[in-house]
């Protein structure tokens, strides 16, 4: 009874800490690039325009992603009326859900202690909590993929349970309409079939047509959005809706995977550039985990075989695509925590692992200390590198450095304490100190403050490129020339627009200003300063003549003003 009460108390403290770490800082910062301003702008536009089904970015259809994540953000914006409160909530809730699923599944497969360790490993893995505190799509799709894996494993390892098997498939479908890779849990059937073929067991799950339930349920989940989307886009003759349908069904799925046009990385990118740093501390455990897993595989322990095989297949799947981003492999972390937790206690007693993890904390802390000292001393090298930034976060960095060195000193042999304390300090300082401090540099607030001091309140703004952070923060009626309009064509469109908008101003970065000199007076410009690593100017005087292109392109307008 005493042991049971102790576990209950530890679980209560863990969930309190998880909620604090993940929700700390909500409302203290605005959406930051990359991706966050885009999804926040689309969500706000859904609420203000009343057009929820087809995502709009500044009035233009946005076909790059299915709408489920943007619907969730729009819902919280509708309820709160403040995008700074709303945009981080969906990922925070789905990350807490992922923690619960891992804890519950590990508890069922092993015991409550292992369940708590699995959830703690996941919470204190750097990439997981970073994405939980970020408003990109990946933490939500990770939650749906974890739900899919949970449903399959409840059936394959703890079943038969056809209900959970079917529910897992349905959640995969919701994952697909969040971001196309939601089907990935189905890959777990491959190691299951191999294990069943190599060593059949007397209590194997029987069934025939029932195995189709998960794929069918997945199609049902996808169909909740896909069927009405195809019907609505095909019912009329709107070429923009046809282009939206073709883009999101073809270009943003199979073509994006097989023939990516950006984020091109080598095959080994994840193993070299993502896993070692962003999967800490579990990446540091791998030399000791590998022999444990090998023993489990030889013993035909499917609790290890199925998740491990799935993780390997997931890494291979994303590595085969030429386009790679570190966040793509985030869904592997919950299953990695699940199969690492049973060996955590033993590994944390190994001297080599203790020295390795404590050494990592010490190295990070020393580097932060050197950075803080150089910053306080106004080092010429550092000052030059940070010339475009206003924030000087040396106090926060110094606190992290001292905190890290203190963890190593106070808990030299207790990495189960030193790493969680250090990582908790990182996220609290980041959320409550660094984020508010970096707000001016990660947003165009200063740029628009400068603009408001130089142009009238009733001015109109034209963007040369679709910079969602400018759409989001602009206090003016703002127009843009489309996401895919060539820059050469935008020159003529800007000339036409300024001729029809006497109170109009065009925002352009210094590097592209000369290109617009063909049609606009670049000498008559207003300097707005630096934002997002570029120097920005306002042009507002068209030249007397400029030959317009034969085929005009639409200009999209965001008529309302954001509400922060």
Description:
Helix 5 packs across helix 7 and helix 9 (162-176) runs parallel beside helix 11 (213-235). The chain folds into three domains: 2-30 and 88-199 and 208-347, no CATH class; 351-442, no CATH class; 446-558. 62% of the residues lie in helices and 6% in strands. Strands 6-7-5-3-4-8 form a six-stranded mixed β-sheet. It is of the alpha/beta class and 564 residues long. It is globular and about 85 Å long. The chain starts with a helix and ends in a 6-residue tail after the last strand. The protein is built from 25 helices and eight strands. Helix 23 (468-473) links the parallel strand 3 (460-463) and strand 4 (477-480). The mean pLDDT is 92. It has helices at residues 2-23, 36-49, 68-80, 83-86, 89-109, 112-123, 126-132, 138-156, 162-176, 189-198, 213-235, 239-258, 269-278, 282-298, 302-320, 332-340, 344-347, 351-376, 380-385, 394-410, 415-442, 445-452, 468-473, 487-500, 510-516; strands at residues 56-57, 60-61, 460-463, 477-480, 504-509, 525-531, 534-539, 556-558.
Core attributes:
single chain; two-stranded antiparallel ribbon; 25 helices; alpha/beta; 8 strands; 564 residues; 6-stranded mixed β-sheet; 3 domains
């Amino acid at each position: 009874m005493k042991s049971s009460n102790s576990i209950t108390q530890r679980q209560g403290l863990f969930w309190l800490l998880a909620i604090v770490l993940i929700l700390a800082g909500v409302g203290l910062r605005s959406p930051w690039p990359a991706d966050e301003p885009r999804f926040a702008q689309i969500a706000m536009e859904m609420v203000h325009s009343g057009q929820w089904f087809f995502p709009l970015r500044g009035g233009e259809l946005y076909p790059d992603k299915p709408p489920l994540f943007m619907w969730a953000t729009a819902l919280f914006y509708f309820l709160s009326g403040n995008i700074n409160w709303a945009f981080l909530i969906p990922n925070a809730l789905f990350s807490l859900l992922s923690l619960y699923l891992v804890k519950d599944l590990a508890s069922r497969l092993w015991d409550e202690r292992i369940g708590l360790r699995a959830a703690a490993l996941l919470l204190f893995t750097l990439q997981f909590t970073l994405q939980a505190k970020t408003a990109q799509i990946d933490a939500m799709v990770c939650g749906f993929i974890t739900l899919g894996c949970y449903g399959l494993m409840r059936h394959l390892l703890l079943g038969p349970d056809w209900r959970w098997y079917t529910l897992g498939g349905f959640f995969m479908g919701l994952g697909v309409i969040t971001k196309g890779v939601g089907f990935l849990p189905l890959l777990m059937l491959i190691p299951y079939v191999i294990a069943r073929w190599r060593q059949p067991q007397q209590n194997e799950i029987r069934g025939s047509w029932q195995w189709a339930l998960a794929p069918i349920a997945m199609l049902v989940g996808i169909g909740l959005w896909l069927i009405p989307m195809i019907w609505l886009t095909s019912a009329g003759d709107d070429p923009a809706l046809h282009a939206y349908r073709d883009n999101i069904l073809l270009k943003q799925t199979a073509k994006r995977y097989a023939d990516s046009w950006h984020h091109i990385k080598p095959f080994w990118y994840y193993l070299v550039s993502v896993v070692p740093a962003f999967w800490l501390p579990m990446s540091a455990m791998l030399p000791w985990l590998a022999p444990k897993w090998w023993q489990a595989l030889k013993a035909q322990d499917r609790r290890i075989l199925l998740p491990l095989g799935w993780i390997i297949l997931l890494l291979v799947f994303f590595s085969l695509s030429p386009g790679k981003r570190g966040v793509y492999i985030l869904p592997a972390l919950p299953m990695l925590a699940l199969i690492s937790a049973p060996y955590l206690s033993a590994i944390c007693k190994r001297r080599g692992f203790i020295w390795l993890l404590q050494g990592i904390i010490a190295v990070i802390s020393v580097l932060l200390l050197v950075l803080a000292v150089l910053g306080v001393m106004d080092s010429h090298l550092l000052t030059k590198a940070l010339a475009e930034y206003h924030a000087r976060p040396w106090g926060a960095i110094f606190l992290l450095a001292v905190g890290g060195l203190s963890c190593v000193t106070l808990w030299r042999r207790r990495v189960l304490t030193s790493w969680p304390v250090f990582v908790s300090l990182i996220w609290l300082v980041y959320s409550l100190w660094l984020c508010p401090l970096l707000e001016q540099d990660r947003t165009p607030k200063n740029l628009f403050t400068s603009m408001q001091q130089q142009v009238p309140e009733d001015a109109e703004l034209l963007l040369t490129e679709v910079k969602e952070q400018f759409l989001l923060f602009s206090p003016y009626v703002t127009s843009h020339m489309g996401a895919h309009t060539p820059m050469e064509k935008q020159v003529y469109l800007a000339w036409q627009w300024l001729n029809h908008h006497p109170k109009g101003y065009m925002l352009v970065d210094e590097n592209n200003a000369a290109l617009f000199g063909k049609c606009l007076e670049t000498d008559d410009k207003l300097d707005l300063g630096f934002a997002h690593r570029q120097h920005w100017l306002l042009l507002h005087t068209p030249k007397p003549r400029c030959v317009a292109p034969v085929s005009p392109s639409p200009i999209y307008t965001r008529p309302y003003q954001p509400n922060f």
